Amino acid sequence: MSATTAEGRKFRKTSLHSQRLWALWGSYAALAVFVVIFLVPPFYTVITSLKSSAEISAQSGSPWMVNHPTLENFWYLITYPNFQTYYLNSAMITVVTVAVSMTISVMAAFSLSRMGFWGSQTLSTGVFLTYLVPPSLLFIPLFQIVGWMGLINNIWCLALLYPTLAVPFCTWIMIGYFSSIPKELDEAALIDGASYVQILLKIFIPVAMPGIIAATIFAFTVAWGAFLYPLAYLYTSNQMVLTVGIISDLIRGDVFQWGKIMAACLLASLPPIVIYAFLMDYYVAGLTAGATKG
Amino acid sequence: MAEVSCRKVVKEYDGGVQAVKGIDLEIADHEFVVLVGPSGCGKSTTLRMIAGLEEITGGEIWIGGDVVNDVPPRDRDIAMVFQNYALYPHMSVFDNMAFGLKLRKFPKDEIKRRVDEAARILDIGVLLDRKPRALSGGQRQRVAMGRAIVRNPKVFLFDEPLSNLDAKLRVQMRTEIKKVHQTVKTTTVYVTHDQIEAMTLADRVVVMNHGIIEQVGTPAEVYHHPTSRFVAGFIGSPAMNFLPCHIDEAGGGGLMVRVNDAIKIKIPAERTARYTPFKGKEMVFGIRPEHLTQRKEEGRPGFEPVDMLVDVVEPMGMETMVHFFVDGAPVCARLDPATIAEPEKMLGLTADMNQMHIMEKETGKVV
Questions:
Q1: Which ipTM did the prediction report?
Q2: C-alpha span between B223 and B296 (Å, rounded)
Q3: Count of Cβ atoms closer than 10 Å to residue B81 Cβ
Q4: Which of B316, B331, B314 has the alpha carbon at shortest distance from B239?
Q5: B25, containing H or E segment
Q6: Chain A contact present for B97, CB below 8 A
Q7: What's the angle, vertex CA B223, arms to CA B219 and CA B225, rounded to 5?
Q8: Could you give the CA distance from residue A111 to residue B50 in angstroms, rounded to a whole number?
Q9: Residue A290: its chain B contacts at CB < 8 A?
Q10: Quick one: closest CA in A to B100, which residue?
């Protein structure tokens, strides 16, 4: 009797172990597909950026290998005045967009989630619905508005336009974060003597920092990577940003300067990578632990 | 001077639901008043109206001689302890306690002195540098109390502060709260649904139900002299036994409670005049489980025999709960553990009729 039980136990254990093994193999297989799809293009970009134009256009050899690695593409771009202008323009517009978008969306989210005024629920839904309108539908009417304001081919029109893309989603993220902060926290602060502005600055912003970082990353990505609006509204190189500048400067007619294009892509990807790596360290989930009963 | 006074206070929510229906309550300076009642009785709403966290629909609230209906919470000079602590998670214990003082621009050394004093009273001096997430439930609740104490407010408001703690810690913190009140003597309004907390902490207990105050009195008053069937049933654990009955003549000018043909219990002579007007009417007889004892007190005035069929016996160590059914109504007796009681057998008990209550069937009013 006891022997049967022991065998039964052993059988079940083995079965569970093999099930787990299969699940692990499945996970690895799925991850491998993911890695191939997402990491091969950046790998190819790096490889191509290290090749000279001659090596790229050569018919012999594997395109996945570098035979004579060179940094000439990078050096060309770094010393190329137009590229410097694009980089500076992109950085400037991104900083302004992030600052404007976050200021508006944090304040909007606080009032929508906490002040409880008449119509705040409808407004919250409205904010999210605005986000669902595709930017490609908006750029024609926006072109007219920008034209009226005399800002066509003026880089500052982007500082006006990008927040329209970033604010709804950032506000939506922040409403979610602020709503997850227990109501008692602002009530305790109210009784402690804080005004609404003090509650926002001293309680909500520090407590909702993970949400603010998430929204900041989103606003940064929108401003840094936008292509359609700068393509539509800017046409001289002194006003251009990176995304459009790279294309218009490094593709001349039907000549694609692949090495320089790839190097420019890598240089343009640097700030997002640095920002993500830097902010992710501060992105500590569960910051509200201990505020209330957990 | 920090009396709190509610005068005809009404709270009506959108849709016409009245949570508080015109209550009157006077709380004296230094008094510890506990609002107790079942969920939805309006006790928390009342507290939040005193705090200024809920607007008042009607009536007046006075704190320290001033009407505060339109005064924001920060200007009411009150401090509140919440059920879920509501500590600021990104601040240390010291900063949590000092937050209110900093906002009021107190000098740094005064803030430190006050926080250290509160930490000493609550025995949390070693925790001052920690963040709330590094504290246990009991420690968090102490910090929440510390945050209230440092402000030295006119009134302390407690909103079910012990509900999130486990049973053992709850008893410990109950004693702490009482000790703190004995030390600082600030007027306190405390909300709980736990009648044991109410009885042990309060100078006066306010029993609320459906948005009205059923009774205000000392713990002994609400326990021994409830004014309504609700209060009689709510205060006391296990709850008071209620049996439908008639008041009948007992011969010799006396009266008796007739529950059914088998259970007829004599009413003490000194209560005859009080119950005579209700002779022949359908009433409700109420007696607490501890006033049904094993049969050994017979012969003393007011102690009457009663026999009932045992349903369930629950030995609890220091006492034994014996449950009966009388005409479908449950009856519980709290007996000495030495009592021999067996299910499905008759048990002879003594009812202490000096402690009984008679209530009107329709209104529930104790007569």
A1: 0.84
A2: 25
A3: 25
A4: B331
A5: strand B18-27
A6: no
A7: 110
A8: 25
A9: 87, 89, 131-135, 140
A10: A192
The answer to whether residues A13 and A90 belong to one domain is: no
Question: Cβ contact (<8 Å) for A293 and B85?
Answer: yes
CB contact under 8 A, B89 and A189: no
Q: Is B265 helix (H, G, I), strand (E, B) or coil?
A: strand
CA distances from A200 to A110, A189, A205, A207, B151 (A): 7, 10, 6, 10, 22
Query: How many angstroms separate the CA atoms of B52 and B50, rounded?
Result: 5
Instruction: Tell whether B98 lies on the interface with A, counting CB pairs under 8 A.
Output: no
DSSP label at residue B53: S
Question: Do A96 and A237 lie in a common domain?
Answer: yes
Exposure string of B51-76, with b = 16+ CB inside 10 Å and e = fewer, is bbbbebeebebbbbeeebeeeebbeb
> Does residue A130 sit in the same domain as residue A39?
no
Choose from A183, A191, A201, A205 for mutation: most chain B CBs within 10 A: A191
Q: Which residue of A has its CA nearest to B151?
A: A192
CA atoms lying within 13 Å on the CB side of residue B66: 11
Burial A30-68 (b: 16+ CB within 10 A, else e): eeeeeeeeeeeeeeebebbbbbbeebbeeeeeeeeebee
The total domain count for chain A is: 2
Q: Which domain holds residue A34?
A: 2-49
Same domain, A214 and A275: yes
Count how many pairs of residues, chain A against chain B, have C-beta atoms within 8 Å: 87
Please report whether residue A58 resides in a domain: no
Domain of residue A111, CATH code: 1.10.3720.10
| Alpha helices per DSSP H over B186-326 | 195-201, 219-224, 229-234, 272-275
Scan for tokens 């039907």, then name that residue.
A254
pLDDT tens digits in sequence order for chain B, 367 residues long: 589 999 999 999 888 888 999 999 999 999 999 999 998 899 999 999 999 999 999 999 999 889 999 999 999 999 999 988 899 999 999 999 999 999 999 999 999 999 999 998 888 889 999 999 999 888 998 899 899 989 889 999 999 988 888 888 888 888 888 988 888 889 999 999 888 899 999 999 999 999 999 999 999 999 999 999 999 999 888 899 999 999 988 877 788 888 888 888 888 888 888 888 988 888 999 999 999 988 776 677 788 888 888 999 999 889 999 999 988 889 999 998 888 888 888 888 899 989 999 999 888 898 8
Name beta bridge partners: A252: A255
